[in-house]
Amino acid sequence: MWAARGELWLDELISLWQAVHASSWLAIFDGIHSDNNHYLTSLWLRLLGDGHSPLLYRAPSIVAGAGTLAVVAIHEKLKVLVLFAASFILAQYDSEARGYALMVFFAVACFELAKQDRGALFAICAVAGLLAHATFAFALAAFAVWKWRRPAWFLAPIAVFILCWTLDWRVMVYRGGTPEPLLDTVRRLARATLGTPLGPLELLAIPALGVALVGLARTRERVFYTAIFLAPAAALVLLQPRFVAPRYFLVCVPFFLILLAELPQVAIAMVVLLNVAGIARLDRGNPKEVVQYMAANTAGDTVTLSSDHKFRNWIVLEYYARGEKKQFEYVDDQSAPWYVIHDFSDDPNPPAIAAYSLVLRTAWSGLSGWRFFLYRRDGSEHASFLPEGQPSLSVDTP
Questions:
Q1: Cβ atoms of residues 383 and 300 within 8 Å
Q2: What span, in angstroms and rounded, lies between the C-alpha atoms of 123 and 117?
Q3: 137, 130 in Cβ contact below 8 A?
């Protein structure tokens, strides 16, 4: 629940808007064509409609995260449960109004059901996994390689995959993000999985990978583990996507954590502490704080702002400005009274902007959202600003 605090961030808001404004319930499956449309989550968002608390929108993910822990508690060792419960990357996506937590739950459930040869329930969970998120297909491919002697298990999941591909996935539009080298994406994934901060501690990923490989060689499910780690790599080679994010490999993480339980107890304790520290810092950016600061420090009835990225910043800020008494307007004008910069760098350095002063920076940590730098145009004579001595929102500024 700690990770689920705070405001919705851009991708959650896009998912909410798409679900609420879809032309019909059926259009969620064949009419949106966006990588932010995760079917099961979109159905929930459409059912709720606009104007509810972030916790309510995130409820299915929170429940799915708890369900994953329950499955692991029943079927795996205590060390595995501890690693799952303390996982930063799982906590990140178990607390967002998106399909990743549901996908992880169904992937773990399928794994345990496959070990017990419970084919009917496996097929149901595999179908649900595909409806949760398209990257469940990596797990489905691994299960098919592992259980190739059970073709009947895969009839329904493969049929659903073909249907989703035909109606939606083949024409899916990737909203994307900032492209980065694949190595940087892998490093971010490793840091989020192991909890290591940027710097020399990243090298801990090397012995961790070695332990995972040893665990893979010993386990009876080695065929599955090999396939689940190779499937995303094969997709990268075949599809060569322009944008890749750590979350696209999330379906592999729970199985890496199972193998990671082969670490010595001291090493497991270190991984747990690093991950818990990451969860404690998790923050998606606090856009409401930016909105409230501008509203409290604008004298007139209209707050005028510009930014370094209209699409990303204005969608989020406008959503939270709806609750303010003052009107907010966005202009493509570098002389606007307020200027917002978004930043998700590991080492934040607010840029200097001519004729503007930095007045607010928000907290941010994690894989979602970003920190905001808020600038105010210099000159107390500007009509948009409160006269000196007038009360304003109390916030910490650098």
A1: yes
A2: 11
A3: yes
For 241, the 3-state DSSP assignment is coil
CA distance readout (Å), 329 to 53, 237, 250, 323: 24, 44, 38, 14
Of 201, 367, 345, 199, nearest to 282 by C-alpha is 367
Tell me the sheet residues that pair with 342: 372
Taking Cα atoms as reference points, which of 298, 303, 349, 346 lies closest to residue 322? 303
**Is 48 exposed, middle or buried, given 0-12, 13-18 or 19+ CB atoms closer than 10 A?**
middle
In the sheet that holds 371-377, the strands lie side by side as 327-330, 302-307, 338-343, 371-377, 356-361
b/e sequence 103-129, b meaning 16+ C-beta within 10 Å: bbbbbbbbbbbbeeeeeeebbbbbbbb
Tell me the pLDDT tens digit for each residue of 282-314: 999 999 999 999 999 999 899 999 999 999 999
Task: Convert the pLDDT of each residue in 310-331 to its tens digit.
Answer: 999 999 999 999 989 999 999 9
Cite the DSSP H helix spans in the chain: 10-21, 27-30, 39-48, 54-57, 59-75, 78-85, 88-93, 100-115, 119-132, 136-146, 155-167, 182-194, 205-218, 222-239, 253-260, 265-281, 287-296, 310-321
The residue among 114, 85, 113, 145 whose CA lies nearest residue 276 is: 85
